[in-house]
Amino acid sequence: MGRNAGKSQGMVESKTKKTKQGVQPATDAAAPLTWTLKRKPTINDVARLAEVSKKTVSRVINQSPFVKDDTREKIDAIIRQIGYAPDPQARGLASQRSFLLGLVYDNPNAQYIVNIQNGVLEASRKAGYELVVHPCDRSNPRFAADVKRFVERQKLDGVVLLPPVSENNALAETLAEAGCRVVRIVAAPLDQPANTVVYHDWKAAGEVADHLVDLGHRAIGFITGPSFYRSAHERARGFIDRLAAHGITLPPERVVEGAYTFESGDAAAETLLGRPDRPTAIFASNDEMAAGVYKAAYRRGLVIPRDLTVIGFDDSALASRMCPTLSTVRSPIRDMGRMAAEKLIARIAAGDAAPIGASEVVPHLLVRESSAAPAT
Prior knowledge:
This protein is of the alpha/beta class. It has helices at residues 5-9, 43-50, 54-61, 69-82, 88-95, 110-126, 143-154, 169-177, 201-215, 230-245, 262-273, 287-299, 317-321, 333-350, and strands at 12-13, 18-19, 22-23, 34-35, 100-105, 130-135, 158-161, 181-186, 196-199, 220-224, 255-257, 281-284, 309-314, 327-330, 359-361, 364-366. The protein has a 6-stranded parallel beta sheet, sandwiched between helices. β12 (281-284), α12 (287-299) and β13 form a beta-alpha-beta unit. α2 packs across α3, α6 (110-126) runs parallel beside α14 and α9 (201-215) packs parallel to α10. Mean pLDDT is 85; it is low at 1-10 and 13-29.
């Protein structure tokens, strides 16, 4: 065998043994592997070191569910140790995929979008996918056609839809007809479990009602989300129904619709706090609007929580930075993004053949400094 032939076969330093075929995998599976050749490692190198077929390595790279966990872990470890990186173009040609996911939204809450996006990126990068973000305008009569055109132009393998766009059944059907897999993050089970990540906001809103009643509040104000959001209806249903179970009915003048924005929370709080029988507690349907309540209370000289208890929803980064810190519902927004992307990637890898169960999230109330009993 020539001097260079060994290099073309055996490429790894470790607890290895040399044979006529080159350097073989270590018998000790825990031994570290170090790539020593100048060329990049290939999928064939990974397959030989893992003692599996090239097809099995390809399945692991493409997140196929049809690989045993111990085999997957072994292959993943070798890929990390020798620094193998699949060629995106070759990978796409071989699998007839673009390895691109889309994130489609029309939502005024920038922090919510960032948190979801970070979760999607966490899952997509782990699986070797890239993310294309697409803000849209659902008020445009042609918005469904525009989203379809975006998906086709980018040749996306799948799309994550955020609320309220995710609540549009016509859009989901349009994308499905175009051959694009979709996972919808929704506040209610609007589709098959394989196509959704469902968050049960109504249960968490009920916890807020229990909390305020336990503190002794009876004069309660409520700032809802915009009426065209399903989440707004679910949060209102959970909060109002639970108050009713305690024998408390919210009069219409104590319920004001907001827009999930800081400005709308400020304006709604002005309305509620400007009444002669102002509330001793306000539940705002997201943290941005709760921050607006803080501003309105400050202008009126009200001290939180001595004069006014304020509760938000989402537990965004803002909540723990406010003074006093905001009691709020902790909604695992980043986790929902990650779960949606993982479900989407699993469906793409399995070709929709494998059964994929429900993904459900139940947020919970996190009590901080903005909660107190009403002043006597």
